[in-house]
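Researcher: Please translate sequence to structure tokens.
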Amino acid sequence: MGYRIQEVTGAAAENPDLARFLADFVCSGELENPKPGDDDSLVWLQRFAWWWDENPYCGPESPRGYQLLDDEGVIVGFNGMIPFEYMVDGKIIPSLVTTTFFVREEHRSAVMGLLTKQRALARTHHMIDGSPSPEMRRLLGRLGYEKSGERFQYFFPLAPLGGGLSRTLLRSIGLCFQLPAARDDSRCYLATTPDEIESIPEMSDGKLRRHLTVESLRWLSKVGTEDRSFFGLCNEHGELISYAIGIYKKRCGVTACLLMDYVDLRPDDDGLGRLIRRLTEKEGRAALRPDTKLISWSVLGDNRKPSASGLRRDSLLYYQLPKTSREVEKLCVPFEGDLPLL
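Model: Translation complete:
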């Protein structure tokens, strides 16, 4: 059978056939653990809009992915891409988050064609895969991707769960750590939308991190189906010190805010610790969803700062840097893949 690989182009609304293929793929039982909405073509069109139309990192020529066509022109596979920009010392490194690698079972022999396209992009782009299947993990290892390491999770109970006393007990077993003292933070303010930020400083420490703008933070704060909140600690001049985007999960009757995405722009001053402390105080709790009883923060082992051990979790974050940037240290965030954008 002859196959053709076609680049995905255009706006979300211009790809209805692709959306129908993805929904049909799920409806036919070929996706092992589908998420709510995976079987609905309209949901896929909304995801395309989030990934491409509304994405400030996505330009007219940005890669959006590839669809695999059989000899009759029917879509039988898809490998999606979500454009991002990362930066090291003022230099932009174009980046792609891979998403939704679906290929019909009877056409799996053509998978390598899609992977060849992906490998070609890896020559010029920083590639990220945050939710690979077990099969893809083995492939990514053979393709030269690096795995980010173990994830360590910490918990910060709020007043309804005992507040400071509960945090002290959790510190004794390594599941929490001491937050920094208030110091001069009275002059700082807590932004609950990116529009309240006046400026974002650039870092010059030789490390690779996402290129941040108010527009990109606005996008990350509103896309995806899960309820989320933005928190930004700013100094008296409106300059961003640190930020986090939290999603809400409820388990055993307890609603937790999971800080899924974050950046510390003043690591020497523990800007992120100061932000978490602010969220545990009365003023900060008002920025959380009213039923929130717990804040959870995860960090990857390679970047771990607290001395506590944390609750060990596996990380599914894989990445590959282009050859021109292989010596750069990448700062990883546990939820850096496509899951927050679904």
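Researcher: Any highlights?
Model: The CA atoms of residues 47 and 342 lie 6 Å apart.
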